[in-house]
Fold:
Amino acid sequence: MEMTLLGLRILREVAERGTFTAAAEALGYTQSAVSRQMAALEQATGARLFDRHPGGVRLTGSGRALLRNAVVALAALEAAERELRGAEKVEGGRVRLGFFPTAGAVIVPRALAMLCQEHPHLQVTTREGTTPSLVRALRAGTLDLALLSSRPPHRSPDTDDPPLSVEPLLEVHLAVAVPAGGPFAERGSVSVEEIAGAPWIASPGTANEPLLGVWPGLPGRPTVRHTARDWLTKLHLVAAGAGITTATPTLLPVVPPGVRFVPVERVAEEVRRVSLVRMPGPLKAPAQALARALRRQAADLADVEDLED
Amino acid sequence: MEMTLLGLRILREVAERGTFTAAAEALGYTQSAVSRQMAALEQATGARLFDRHPGGVRLTGSGRALLRNAVVALAALEAAERELRGAEKVEGGRVRLGFFPTAGAVIVPRALAMLCQEHPHLQVTTREGTTPSLVRALRAGTLDLALLSSRPPHRSPDTDDPPLSVEPLLEVHLAVAVPAGGPFAERGSVSVEEIAGAPWIASPGTANEPLLGVWPGLPGRPTVRHTARDWLTKLHLVAAGAGITTATPTLLPVVPPGVRFVPVERVAEEVRRVSLVRMPGPLKAPAQALARALRRQAADLADVEDLED
DNA sequence: TGGTGGATATGCTGATCGCTCATGGAGACC
DNA sequence: GGTCTCCATGAGCGATCAGCATATCCACCA
Structure:
């Protein structure tokens, strides 16, 4: 029995998605095919590669070892394809960045603009995603850098081996985005009790964080009037007076007219930390350049927030 | 259509053997299968990978580009197999050395012994071969270093791209190995005319060098009494008085009793240079250590030869 | 405690893939 | 010009693989 290229590709995708089923649909196969391929890979390597849990699979030590090498192999082959098909080695470098949704509005575009001026030849590809999906992508080798957001206590985003490198870039305090004409618009700050009864605009709930967008730890049962995942939608709903939502002041530079940000009293505990996360070890030059740009933009945003305080 | 692992493995083997047929039998396939696999690989990559010549194939630019990446990918997978099956990362490093046959008697074993003392954890694997086969192996990534022997003019061992790194280690003058009791044994030197009529022990002839072992450029038709490829055989045939043969004094430390080395007059032109050849670029630490050991042993042998002169 | 939903594993089938055998064609060397 | 070596290709067959449908397992929840 013999390892197969398709098997390794699927392994990488499974490592990234955390689930046979998700990997299958990402690759356009059926779950059955993925299950068989992984079974074949386990037989080929003679090792158990996954711990099967209900809710998904997790790589074993052997699985991580194989993944580490498979990533190298697949990257080499993808480089070969690029070389043969497209531009013959003209590229000055590639970086792959992942980020949490809110970062896509300000930090990431600004960093890209800055990077494009300094290193116009750099090819940066980005991807939005949740913390677990981005972390898996880092470990699967399909991302070089990830911007993650964390809340206290700021634990490492996973407990796998080897531990990820986490570099805090910025801390911001949560605030509420309110309509300019509404009752809270001109207030210096509002109390938790005041906003408890307001109509909220939330993100579609997940199992873990059922009320993303609603102020955390609100007393009573909040009334969620609107549900949207997209920030542009949410902010314009706020501007239209449809409700209020929780946001970080990093969005300030891009809020539409008609939206105000108001701090919340005793907000100290509700801090969100933005960190630059990557696999341990040396970083390629293009990734370093992007990391520098991100640090710079994060510092600029920190200054803005300081002015706010 | 999709690149395949087997296709890449065969590509590497073809690059190393220079021939579909040879690669096929090396891998236990039919020539037909190799031809089809390479056709499929060319279709998958959309590029012509080989220049077909009668007598073999040569990689095109695209072929070299693909090979370069394929070597990386295959090495990663082989590393994965080693990690999963055998010793879990206990190895301190691996080096693969190729050498021309005469080097296997003295230089290589001594360098290995020295290296084993200094770095006992190093895993060195070696392989004997001809210059073209070793050069192809270097380019195919299955060798890290190669000891090659060359005669004047000392051209680069091939003209492919990128050029190989060639570091001369040692120059030795050819001599004849004669039986201790024979007519030439006690002579300070012999002339070409004297040895022209002697019974020779030669290596099985190839197309290019039909008379390896016989003094080059001998007048008339030499009488080849024995044919053997193995040095131990040849030297003991000499010791038995069965004939004489051409050799380099680097073998002196290991000649059996009953064999004398005698220089030949006007030997100046018949110099053989031993070089350490490798792909350009940085060398891994284990390979550097082996290279140092080889340089050291070569220098020691050069001293011995100086004493001889 | 039993139902439900999401996850992986597996028997079966049709189509594809890949290897072998055998043959053909092209060039180099003697 | 013969011969040798090498690569290409048509036909056939055996193994492999993806898909479908289904079974199974487990956590969660009422």
Q: What stands out?
A: The first strand of chain B starts at residue 50 and ends at 53. Residues 6, 29-30, 32-33, 36-37, 40, 52-55, 207 of chain B lie near DNA strand C (CB under 10 Å from a C1').
